[in-house]
Structure formats: structure tokens, C-alpha cells
């Protein structure tokens, strides 16, 4: 009995050692042989100094979870290499299936190169290519001679590519094209997940669609949800707008777009561009908003008009009887080389080319200041044609001696030519103060008049004459009789300090963060000495 126990103990010890050795060999990468499963016939021999087995007819080899099928196979046992010919098929784990005309399989590295009419299938997609390299260890396929991938939703092609059957990720390079139900995508580098159906951009990418085009240099597009997240110089291009930014989100289903950083919104119909830091776009509503010190730019009279506000909002016409509009609010500022202005809010009718300034609007044209409760500017051929000033209209202009010629009335209409005021009609409750000068150096007196309707004429950016359309109540006051209180009409205020400059209207570029100065290293001896001192000092 004692001997039997000793015998069983030895057997179990040997079995444990054997299992441990097998595991250790597998961990150390022990080569698993390529095993012949079947063949109709076998011809063996030495050819050119090496052992080759020729297997013919319904040949099947297996190694781990990989199986190779072919009409015939040359087996190089010393190299652990197979050359397969005719109706070649490689199957791995019953999920990946590759077919081709011929193949070379290395049993040591578990890699295969398949050539000729190659078709690779897994449950997610089908790949066709002239040649393919497949690694059964990493379950990765690579092609370099052009390939086409088709799944139930999309068709993808590129010059080169890699497909990982574990992660279901396709990596494309060179001449990448993706066709979905809604878009045609072109790029040089791209990734695609056959499981999630998400496209990843890695370089300049163009996406053409029926409802608009997209461009990005990095980002993602979900071909199922039709949601895009783009970066670097991205933009959406529709028939009406071009919305761009460093970051861009777009949902094709809802037609909603969101842009951040260096946002630009361009209206293609009238060449108006709005720039800012945050932009929102609603395709179906034909609406867009830009925030973050936005500025509108448009070309007028071969010059650029800049308009800024806290918010700029654009709305497209929704029918024949509606107009395309731009709304700016609050803190509106306008700058053009010959026209500046400010107001609390502004609306621009792009259909009729009329600009409405509301709530304390002020305009400056050269030496003239125009104020009213509401101001409407009529544009024609990209130039200011007329200006309508409603309620409490007031025009003041500064002469060479810093006197202020003033005209006020209920309403006024100003007529422009080449960007300069030429005539102003005053309608109702007209009053005027006009300083008479001799040689632009001496005041000879001041004309004061009250008249219901007047006509003012300007030349060389100065008030030249005032015509009274009905009998005025007028007086001329010589210089020595002028008192300070007589030099201003009621309601006069010279607002030069509010006149916007170009720098105030345009957003300031973001200042670059200062680079930290490199720390100077103390000499080794001093550093050690300081450390000892600090360590030994009691506080």
C-alpha cells in the first residue's frame, strides 16, 4: 500500500511538470505546426536541395484557429511555409474568410499573402483588392494596390489600407473615397469603424452632399446618426451660407450647426461676412447667430464697412413677401473710412438694401454728426444713396474755428453722392445756427433762423448754404454781441468721444501667452550649500 501511494505521487508530479512545461513553452512562443487535414494525393521529394511535399486536390491545412483550403499546395516543411494555388481560401475562427487565386502562408509568423482577385469577408464588411497581407496573430489585413470595402450602409475605397478584425477599424491612406446615402467623401487619410459606422478624418477632407458640403482637416462623421464633429479649418457650405470655425458640429438630420473659435459666417447671396468666436446655424429655419465680439464685413464703394455688436443674427427670406435680414444688438458700432456710427440695435434688410438704426443712433460723415430717434440708410449699388432721420433729427458740423453749425427738425432726409452728404431736406420744426466766416479764419457773425422746412447744401465736406422754403424768422448776430448760450440749439451735444475707430470695431487678436523664462541653474557647490543651510535653519 505504501508503494502504491509513492507511485501515484510520482505520476501526479510528472503530470504537473508536463502541464507546466507545456504552458511555459506556449508562453515562450513554442511553434504550433501546420497540420495537414486532407488531400486527394501527395507527392514528396527533394527539389533544388530542399524537401517539398506536393499536395493535390481538396487540400486542407490547419493551424490553431486558422484553416487554409486550396486546389493544390506546396509544403516546405523545413521553412514551415505553404504555397497554395487555385481556389485559395483562408478561414479564421469562422468569422474571417479570405479568397484568392494563390497564397503564401508562413507557419512561424502565421502570416499569409494572398494574390489575385482577393475577397475578404467578415460579418461587418466585404473587401476586394488585387493582393492582401493577413496576420492571423493580430488579425490584421493590409493592402497596397487599391481596395474597395462595402458594408450594408457605405462604400469605401483607397489606394492603401489596413483592417483590424478585432477592433473593426479600417485605416485608409491615399485617394480615399467614401460613398454614403447622403454624402460623397474624399480624403487622403481616414479611418472607419465598421461596427459604429463612424468615419475619422486625418487630413484635408471634402464631403459633398445634396443639402450642403462639408470640409475639415480632422474630426469624425457618423454615417448612421449623420452627425459631424470637425476641427481645424472646418466649414459647412450651403446655397445660402458658408459657416466655418476651428471646431464645428453639424447634425444633418436637424440641419443644426455649431462653430467655435475663429468663426466666419458668409452670406453667399450678397457677399456679407460675419466673424466671431461662437456661431450657430439652423438650415431649415434659414437662421444663423454669431457671438463673441462678432463683426460683419461688406464691400461698399470699393471700401469695407465693418459692423460690430454683442450678437449678430441673420435670417433668410421665407417667401416672396419676406426679406433677408441681419440684426445686430446691443452695442452696435459701424466703421467705414468715410462713415462711422453707433446705436443700441440695428437691422439690415438685405432684400431692399435698407439699414435701420434704433435707440440713440449717431452717425458721423467726415465733419458732420447726425442724430435722430431712428435712422434709416438706403443703399444702392453698394453705396449710401439716402438717409432718413425720424423724430428729433439733428445735424451738426464743425468748422475750421471749432464752431458748430447746427440744424434741427422733426424729420430729415440726407442725399449722398460718392459717400459724401450733398443735400439735406429738413421737414417740420426747423431751426438752424450757421457761423459766417471770412477766409476760414475769422467769425463775421452767426445766422440764426426758425423755419418749418429747409434745404442744406454741402460741399467739400462742409455746410455751404441753407435755403428756407417758407418765410423764416431769421436774425444775424455780430461777433461782439454773441453770448456763449446763443451758440447752441436746444438738444445739441457734440459726441466726438463716442465716434468709433477701426480698432474699436474690429476684434483684437488674442494675445499669445508669454513664454516662461528658463530657470537658471545654480553652480553645483552653491546649490549644495544653500540646501544645507535651508535644511539646518529653524523658523
UniProtKB/TrEMBL annotation:
CC annotations in GO: cell outer membrane; transporter complex
Matching InterPro entries:
LptD, OstA-like_N
Q: Where is the composition biased (Basic residues)?
A: 528-539
The cross-references to Pfam families, in alphabetical order and at most eight, read:
OstA_2
Task: Answer whether the UniProt record assigns the keyword Transcription regulation to this protein.
Answer: no
> The Organic solvent tolerance-like N-terminal domain covers which part of the protein?
34-187
Superkingdom of origin organism: Bacteria
Q: Where is this region: Disordered?
A: 503-539
Q: Which residues form the signal peptide?
A: 1-21
The UniProt keywords, alphabetically, are:
Cell outer membrane, Membrane, Signal
Q: What is this protein called?
A: Organic solvent tolerance-like N-terminal domain-containing protein
Q: Which species expresses this protein natively? A: Pontibacter actiniarum
Amino acid at each position: 500500500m505504501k508503494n502504491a501511494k509513492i507511485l501515484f505521487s510520482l505520476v501526479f508530479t510528472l503530470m504537473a511538470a508536463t502541464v507546466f512545461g507545456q504552458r511555459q513553452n506556449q508562453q515562450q512562443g513554442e511553434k504550433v505546426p501546420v497540420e495537414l487535414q486532407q488531400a486527394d494525393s501527395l507527392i514528396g521529394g527533394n527539389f533544388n536541395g530542399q524537401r517539398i511535399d506536393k499536395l493535390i486536390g481538396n487540400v486542407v491545412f490547419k493551424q490553431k484557429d486558422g484553416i487554409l483550403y486550396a486546389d493544390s499546395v506546396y509544403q516546405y516543411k523545413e521553412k514551415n511555409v505553404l504555397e497554395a494555388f487555385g481556389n485559395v481560401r483562408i478561414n479564421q475562427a469562422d468569422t474571417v474568410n479570405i479568397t484568392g487565386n494563390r497564397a503564401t502562408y508562413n507557419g512561424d509568423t502565421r502570416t499569409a499573402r494572398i494574390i489575385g482577385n482577393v475577397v475578404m469577408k467578415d460579418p461587418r464588411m466585404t473587401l476586394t483588392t488585387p493582393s492582401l497581407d493577413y496576420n492571423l496573430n493580430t488579425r490584421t489585413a493590409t493592402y497596397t494596390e487599391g481596395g474597395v470595402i462595402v458594408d450594408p450602409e457605405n462604400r469605401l475605397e483607397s489606394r492603401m489600407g489596413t483592417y483590424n478584425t478585432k477592433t473593426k477599424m479600417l485605416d485608409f491612406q491615399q485617394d480615399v473615397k467614401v460613398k454614403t446615402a447622403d454624402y460623397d467623401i474624399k480624403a487622403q487619410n481616414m479611418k472607419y469603424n465598421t461596427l459604429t459606422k463612424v468615419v475619422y478624418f486625418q487630413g484635408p477632407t471634402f464631403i459633398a452632399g445634396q443639402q450642403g458640403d462639408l470640409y475639415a482637416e480632422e474630426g469624425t462623421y457618423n454615417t448612421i446618426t449623420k452627425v459631424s464633429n470637425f476641427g481645424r479649418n472646418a466649414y459647412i457650405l450651403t446655397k445660402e451660407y458658408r459657416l466655418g470655425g476651428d471646431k464645428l458640429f453639424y447634425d444633418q438630420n436637424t440641419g443644426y450647426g455649431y462653430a467655435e473659435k475663429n468663426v466666419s459666417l458668409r452670406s453667399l447671396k450678397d457677399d456679407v461676412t460675419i466673424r466671431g468666436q461662437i456661431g450657430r446655424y439652423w438650415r431649415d429655419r434659414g437662421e444663423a447667430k454669431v457671438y463673441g465680439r462678432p463683426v460683419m464685413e461688406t464691400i461698399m464703394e470699393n471700401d469695407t464697412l465693418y459692423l460690430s455688436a454683442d450678437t449678430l443674427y441673420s435670417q433668410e427670406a421665407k417667401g416672396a413677401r419676406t426679406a433677408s435680414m441681419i440684426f445686430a444688438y446691443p452695442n452696435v458700432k459701424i466703421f467705414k473710412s468715410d462713415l462711422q456710427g453707433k446705436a443700441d440695435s440695428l437691422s439690415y434688410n438685405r432684400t431692399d438694401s435698407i439699414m435701420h438704426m434704433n435707440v440713440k443712433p449717431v452717425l458721423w460723415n467726415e465733419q458732420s454728426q447726425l442724430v435722430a430717434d431712428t435712422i434709416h440708410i438706403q443703399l444702392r449699388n453698394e453705396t449710401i444713396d439716402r438717409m432718413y432721420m425720424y423724430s428729433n433729427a439733428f445735424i451738426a458740423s464743425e468748422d475750421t474755428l471749432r464752431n458748430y453749425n447746427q440744424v434741427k427738425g422733426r424729420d430729415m432726409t440726407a442725399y449722398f453722392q460718392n459717400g459724401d452728404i450733398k443735400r439735406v431736406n429738413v421737414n417740420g420744426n426747423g431751426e438752424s445756427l450757421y457761423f459766417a466766416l471770412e477766409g476760414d479764419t475769422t467769425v463775421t457773425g452767426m445766422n440764426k433762423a426758425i423755419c418749418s422746412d429747409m434745404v442744406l447744401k454741402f460741399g467739400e465736406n462742409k455746410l455751404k448754404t441753407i435755403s428756407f422754403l417758407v418765410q423764416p424768422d431769421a436774425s444775424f448776430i455780430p461777433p461782439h454781441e454773441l453770448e456763449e448760450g446763443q451758440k447752441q440749439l436746444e438738444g445739441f451735444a457734440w459726441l466726438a468721444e463716442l465716434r468709433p475707430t477701426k480698432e474699436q470695431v474690429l476684434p483684437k487678436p488674442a494675445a499669445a501667452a508669454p513664454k516662461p523664462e528658463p530657470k537658471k541653474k545654480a553652480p553645483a557647490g552653491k546649490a549644495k550649500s544653500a540646501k544645507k543651510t535651508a535644511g539646518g535653519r529653524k523658523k
